[in-house]
Predict the 3D structure of the following.
Amino acid sequence: MGQYGGTERRERRQPFAEPAVAVSDWAGRERKAARGVSELTFEDAQKELEAIVERLERGGASLDEAIVLWERGEELLHFCVTRLETAQGKIEELAKRTEDVAPLAGPETAE
């Protein structure tokens, strides 16, 4: 007997293959969900992520589509966060270089 009083039945599940689902962006173009994130600019990745969040919040996606959208959203989020952290590091490095450079004209001393 199984946990709920019946005979235990296990389903054999097929391995989840990545579907070639086209995710429409709101400009009417279609992109394959499998498109590599590294091919995108930060701005394009951010727009696609925003569209995915909007689509998931509205609700009407099937379970399979929602899973694909969620996975793509995670990839895009990771890409965007990594790009922002890299940019922040470069800005901090440039600011440090600027601080390290002595001013051309030093402060005038009053006598």
Remarks:
- The beta strands are 22-24, 30-32.
- The radius of gyration is 25 Å.
- The helical segments are 42-58, 63-100.
- Residues 22-99 form one domain.
